[in-house]
Amino acid sequence: MQEINDEKIKIEDVKPDKSLRILTGDRPTGHLHIGHYFGSLKSRAKLQDKFETFIEVADVQALTDNFNNPQKVKDNVTQIIMDELAVGIDPNKVTFFIQSMIPEIAELTVYYSNLVTIARLQRNPTVKTEIAAKKELFGESVTYGFLGYPVSQAADITAFDATYVPVGDDQLPLIEQCREIVRKFNSIYGETLREPVAVLSNTTRIKGLDGNEKMGKSLGNALYLSDDLEEIKQKVMSALTDPQRIRKDDKGHPEVCMVYYYHKLFSTENECKNICEECKAGARGCVACKKQLIDNINRELGPIREKRHYYEEHPNEVMDILMAGTEHARKIAKQTLDRVKKSMMLDY
Ligand code: TRP
Ligand code: SF4
């Protein structure tokens, strides 16, 4: 029996066990980019063989800060699933489901909301950072729904008795908040809910092509899994290189160059070694260097793009996958809700 009471663990530390469940999710607010790919999608594709895996499209959560743009949320539900399928997450192994189609999650959220104080939510570091970044949307006072989304996320996780929750480090305060809710619930109503453990999927955050710490559509600095070859070419050609390098024989500093940074993600170790040496010696042109990067990116993303293209042409298949997954997920959430209501003496 492995220790599952740690607050957080790394993916490599987890022994495969098909009887354990993992749950993770994404807000459908945009296509997935290379940061998601290296940060979570690749590890999901590995985890699906080790655990019973659930992936939630968190449309209810997405609405907490996009309530004024439901079309955007709706459009991105299938887009996100296409990205996931394209990288090799297998619908025969994984249960994909839509949050809003599981009303049991909403019910659990109501019950859990008694177990969390407003002050505690306001102190949640992730929530705090997000509120600060969304002044334009929320003005002086944040909505009840947004402030409470960690409670809803606790319902997402506990509805499925998830043991592990693979997330990036920005999500750790949300998992901690979930664990607190579980402990409080169990101490008041009796042992009912499982306390989840966060699994850090990847701690290195990938910078944008312009060197920005953050990647985003509006910044134009991200490579999307849905980008075609032309878009990749254009983005890589305008990536930030060593600004001190004007002529080809100027000695370069690969460590400040985003093209080199991306070579380290997509090119072989040997290639990287050569690039580094040639750049430093002033024996490498930036244009050729970028072209080599484009080829290597395309080698990795080309097959993903092709697979995505198949699903773009077959949107009904995507919907079928989502509907079948949601149906399965709902059965499990229903069992949890029944257990919760029984513990709370609401089993009339
Ligand atoms: N909050 C997560 C994010 O912004 C998305 C999410 C919703 C999630 N429900 C979840 C992640 C449950 C893990 C488990 O990316
Ligand atoms: Fe960057 Fe390559 Fe130009 Fe060196 S040669 S500055 S690594 S693009």
Describe this structure in words.
β5, α10 (172-189) and β6 (197-200) form a beta-alpha-beta unit. α12 packs across α14. The radius of gyration is 22 Å and the shape is elongated. By secondary structure, it is mainly alpha-helical. The two termini are 37 Å apart. A three-stranded parallel β-sheet has the order 1-6-5, with helices on one face. It folds into two domains: 8-206 and 315-343, Rossmann fold, CATH 3.40.50; 227-309, Tyrosyl-Transfer RNA Synthetase. The protein has 15 helices and six strands. The chain binds tryptophan and iron/sulfur cluster. Residues 241-242, 245, 252, 254, 257, 259-260, 275, 279, 284, 286, 289-290 line the site of iron/sulfur cluster.
Keyword list:
binds tryptophan, mainly alpha, 348 residues, Tyrosyl-Transfer RNA Synthetase, 15 helices, three-stranded parallel beta sheet, 2 domains, single chain, binds iron/sulfur cluster, Rossmann fold, 54% helix, disordered N terminus
Order of helices and strands: EEHEHHEHHHHHHEHEHHHHH
How helical, in percent, are the residues? 40-55%
Highest CATH level, the class of the largest domain: Alpha Beta
Largest sheet: 3 strands, parallel
Overall 3D shape: elongated
Give a short synopsis of this structure.
With 348 residues, this protein is mainly α. It has 15 helices and 6 strands.
